[in-house]
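Model: You mentioned two targets. I'll fold them one after the other.
Researcher: Yes, keep them separate.
Model: Target one:
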Amino acid sequence: MATAEKIKTAREYIFKWEGVDRKGNKIKGQSPGPSDNFIKQQLRKQGISPTIVRKQSSLLGPRKKAVKAGDIAIFLRQMATMMSAGVPLVQSLEIVGRGHENPSVGELIMGIKTHIESGNSFSAGLAQFPLYFDDLVVNLVDAGEKSGTLETLLDKIATYKEKTEAIKKKVKKALTYPTAVIIVAFIVTGILLYFVVPQFQDLFQGFGADLPAFTLMVIGLSEFVQDKWWLMALIIGGLGYGFHEAKRRSQNFRRFLDRVLLKAPIVGAILYKSAIARYARTLSTMFAAGVPLVEALDPVAKAAGNIVFEEAINTMRDQVATGQQLNLTMETSGMFPNMATQMVAIGEESGALDAMCAKVADFYEEEVDNLVDSLSSLLEPLIMSVLGVLVGGLVVAMYLPIFKLGQAI
């Protein structure tokens, strides 16, 4: 799914590019990035095979912020508000672009404005920046322009972006907090083993007595860390790099990883319900915009954020294309809860599929919110216990000989 990329380099440039999309059509545009290889990589993620990528000019100075997904959601909301108030498109872009607090976003908006002033449509202007505006947004804006309901669709797109970004932040919060604490715990343990334990080891050598087995084990671990820290760093770095490359290059590995994550305790429930929420929210937005169901399911699959769901939705799309009802394909896939399936069935029967999908999305977004809060409350004592065992265990191991010496005296 194409979203605004967080670019952590100090300097970026504008690159003009030409390429071929999935349908074999020639396409060209311009995108910001630190290098031509970065642009090529991002274009390939969008299904575009680049043929020419050329650097044009410096875009971001050293102090400028990158364009984030949240910035795009705010931009779309501002455009929806401005156009609903009757402000013309070009003037709306001018006002929003000039007044944005992030210069990078301002330059992006002014780039869209320049493209529109050359005689192109709003959707065509957005299409020039595929790293920030995916096919779903571009197609919905194009549908709004053709039907004369651009203001309404911009409002729906802005709501969709805000909701999906909120879900992403909740999932990220659920995964980042325990990961960060565990990493810090291992770093602290490593520091203790490398710097603190050797000091006690020198002290123990003058005791002239046998040390407890637990203390000997910790000292042995400390000696290993001191002698082989480079090997441990190499192994950890190699595993991290191998994991990243396998995830990037192997669809089978991504499928295996996504299946494992969906079955993980607590976190699996959060990822599962967030995928249901994204599916329902995207489908509601697409269907409300008048996009036919079969066509809507393609971007819906990409927005699910999980390859297991993506493959299931693609299979559902093929089944819907043969005339089956959506709720039956959802039930057959085995990926959707009964509540979601029944709500979609009611929506199909009543002709209000978009409204029912929106209700499903609201329900599961609230479920994700509650699960994240529960996870945070559950993890706090668990993490404190892990830290206590790691750090406390090292302290006890170092003081056991001292306690024994005190008893002998």
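Model: Target two:
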Amino acid sequence: MKMFPKNFLWGGAVAANQCEGAWQENGRGPSNLDMVPYGERRFDVCSGKLKPEKLDENAVFPARIAIDYYHRYKEDIKLFAEMGFKVFRFSISWTRIFPSGSEAEPNEAGLRFYEDVIDECLSYGIEPLVTICHFDVPVHLIETIGAWKSREMIGCYLKLCQVLFQRFKGKVKYWITFNEINMVLHMPYVSSGVNFEPGENIIQTKYQAAHHELIASAKAVMMAHEIDPSFQVGCMLAAGNMYPYSCQPADVWESIVKDRENYLFIDVQSKGYYPSYGLKMFERMGIQLQKEPEDDQILLDGTTDFISLSYYNSSVASGDPKMQATAVGNVFPSIENPYLETSDWGWQIDPLGLRITLNSLYDRYQKPLFIVENGLGAVDQVEEDGMIYDDYRIGYLREHIKAMKDAIEQDGVELIGYTSWGCIDLISASSGEMKKRYGYIYVDKDNDGNGSLKRIRKASFYWYKKVIESNGEIL
């Protein structure tokens, strides 16, 4: 059997809003994620149905403290280096750089923080993979211009990009413009800072906001290549193929329709234009995108260098309207697949689905792929000997890495690397919980915010270290 490519990038991934905390330190301004509560009203806010200012005064906001990575990043990166990470994916908190999003000059303290993080990675030989916008939107821009509803956001975003590209030229090679861009359709406030007013055409607003992000992404790609031609800039989607519930043609067709909904924005970012099925969909739904005359050329000139993806599960679709979505997973509604097991949170576990998804994406785009999120959210128990024996996590990751290996060796998929999600325990994006843990490193904190924040190596820590040392041969 062939091995993974020699230069394969093994590592892990986090997001600023789920790990950093320190939400008001050193000039940082408030972000949309700082306003998302823990508890039963969380999804109402995430989906844009409930404005944060209407929350009860006792609401708790877990992202504001998170796991205090802001003060502990050196300790954490040292642990990543101990595992042998080749790459570390993290994101920029927009409001650390531009606290309101509209300043003329960046906040130097914020830039210094990320430069220190990057330098710390480089000191261990770890390649930084930087997500420019991982769901972060300055609250000021939400309140004044409606966030990505407004075309003004493009200029604000590009100002951030220019500062980052110039400052970190020569230190960062890999960039992602937007995290899971298709999430604007499912969690518009979290994804893009988008709220809805009574009577607003919600579907029109979502696609218009996405169009602004697509133009911003294309312009960022062009800017990056102009500043440093060696920059590699990727797009990203929340991926996972949609299976038909049966071989009944109506079910097969519905799975194609749902996959297209998921692929639409990546089609634009990778190929440079809205596909014909997307234009027909807009026509049927009465969506009229407000575009500038130069937009089509911008999209064509600003295609990405690689496709990055998160993968947690596959989904199932039926053409029968009576079939109800009963399974959960990464926000996408799905009919339950009877052939799959589920996680503690009801997400269906499908390692072969990763291989299927990788092949679908590579067949479609013929561009290098980068798995930048994959993992198992589970309840971990610290035993009397102080150890966390997370064999269930090891089993999950082992099977997904095998599927990834098959896609490379047997199918010829070009894969840059693999950064498993939440390499250190962090705040769950979907639920705001701490007990939903993904990491190789345990963080002593509970859902109520209690705990010492002590870091503890889990059994999976030592397992992943061997995986990296062997370049994926020892699983």
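Researcher: Noted. Anything on target two?
Model: DSSP finds 15 helices and 14 strands in the chain.
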